[in-house]
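[audit] Reproducing an earlier prediction to check determinism. Same input, same settings, fresh worker. If the C-alpha cells differ from the archived copy the diff job will pick it up downstream; this log only records the rerun itself.
[audit] input (516 residues):
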Amino acid sequence: MRITVVSLLLAALAVLTGFVVRSVDLFSPGRGTVPLVVSLAAAWLLFAAAVIALRGVRGRAVVVLILAGSLGIGAAAMIGPPNTSTDSARYAWDGIVSNAGISPYAYVPSDPRLDSLRPDWLFPAPQVGANGTARCVGERIQTVHRSGPGDVLCSALNRTGVPTIYPPAAELFFAGVRAVTGPGPAYWPLQLTGLLLSIGTTVMLLFGMRRRGIDLRHAALWAWCPLVASEAVTNSHVDMLGVVFTLAAAFLVTRERYWRGGIALGAAIATKLIPVIAAPALLRKQGWKVITAALVTFLLLYVPYVLATGIGVLGYLPGYLTEEGYQDGTRFALVSLVAPGGAAIIVVGILLVVVAALTLWKTDPARPWLGQLVMIGSTLVILSPRYPWYALLLVPFIALSGRWEWLAVPLALSIRMLFPSVQLTRVTLAAAVILIVAVSLRRAGPGAVKRLFRRRPLRGSPAGEGTRAESVAVGAARSVGAARSVGGAQKASSSRGRRRHLLRDVGRSRVTWSRR
C-alpha cells in the first residue's frame, strides 16, 4: 500500500512536470508568472508528500522508487523547450563555435564573421513586412540591430553583444555535446545530457550512502526535487555538471583519495566557478593536496583558452557582476537591510570569511557534507542570487546530510525569480533562515551553541546516530573487538564479515525522519 501511494504521488509529479514544460513559460504573454507560481507550489507539495510517504517503505523498493522517480520526472521535464531561461541556447552556440576551431571568447555572437555557423533554430531569418521592414517573430527570439541599416539579426540567445561568460570546462562540455549531435538539433541534446547527469548523481548518492551507512531514502531529496527537474533538465543549466564534479570530490576526499578529489574539485570550479564554496569543508585533512590538485587542474583547463584569447578568457564575467548589482552591493537582499550600498560588500566579505573559517574548523573530515551544506547554503542566503539554479549545488548535500529544512533556500530563490521584488525576497529568505535555525537547534538539542565553539568537529550525520539501530551496530563492533582478542585471527575475520553485513542492513533499515 505504501509503495502504491508513493508511486501515485510520483506519477502525479511527473504528469504535472510535463504539463508545466508544455504549457507554462516566462516567454509568452498570458502563460507566465501566475501559472508558474501555482505549478511550482503544486510540484513542491507533491514532492514533500512523496518524500514523507517514502518513510514507510523498506528494502529494495526504496532504491527502485528513487531511481524510477528520478527517471520518470526527468523524462517528463524533457518534453518541451526551456521555460524560464534561454541559457542553453548560448551553450549550444558556444559548442558550435568551438567545434569550428574558434575560441568562444574571441567574438560576440552577433559578429558578422560568424554568420556561416548560424543554425536556423538559433538564428531564424527575419520576416519582411509589406513596408519592407524586417522583424523577428517567435517565442524566445530576440531582435538584434547590427551596424548596417536594416541589418537585423534574429536570435534565441540572450546578450548577443557580449562574449561568453562560461569557464573552460563548461566550454569543453558544450563542444562535446555538439560534436555528437551536430548544430542542427535544438534543445533536446542538452536536456538529455542534463537528465543523464541528474540520474547519475542519484546513483552516486545511493552508492555513497550505502557505503557510509546513510539512509538511502534521503536520496529522494535530490532525485525527486522539482528544482532538479526544472533547472538541470528542462532548462539544462551547466551547473549540473559542476554538481557531479563537486559530489565526486566529496566522496573521493572522504575515501582519502585527496589528489583525485582535488582534480574533481578543480574541474567543478572550472565549470561554473561557484563550486569553490564547497572547498573549505574538504580541506580539514590533507588540504594542501586537495588545493594543489584543484589549482593545477583549474589552470590546465584555462591554459589553451588563455593562449588563444588572452585576458578575453574572462568573457562577460566583469560585466555580469556589475549587471547583477554585486559591485555596488544592491544585490544582497538581507545584508543591504543593515549595510546599504558599498558597505554591504564589506559585510558580505566578512560573513563569508567567518562561515568559511567555521566550516573548515568544525567539519568532520570523514563526513564533510554538513560543512558543505552550511557553506553553500549560507553563501546563497548572503549573496541572494536572482536565479534558483545556483541552488542545484546545495541539493545533493541536503540529501547526504538529511537536513530537509535547507530546501527552503532553493524554494526562496525560485520565488525570487518569479517575483523580482527586493521586499518579497527579504521575507522569503528571512523565513528560510528562521526555519533552518529553528529545526537545526531542535535537532541538535540542549547545548548546541556551546558545542559550536568547541574544538571537536560537528558530526552532522542524521543517518541514525543515537537510534536503536546504531546502538546495535556499535554493539556488533565491540563484539568484533572481543572476538579478536579471544578467538584469534580466523574468528575475527568471520566477525568482521558479520559486522559488515549488519552495518549494511542497518543502513538499509534505519529510520531517520523523526525528531532528529
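[audit] rerun output stored. Observation attached for the diff report: The chain has four domains: 1-82+187-235, 87-169, 238-463, 470-516.
[audit] end
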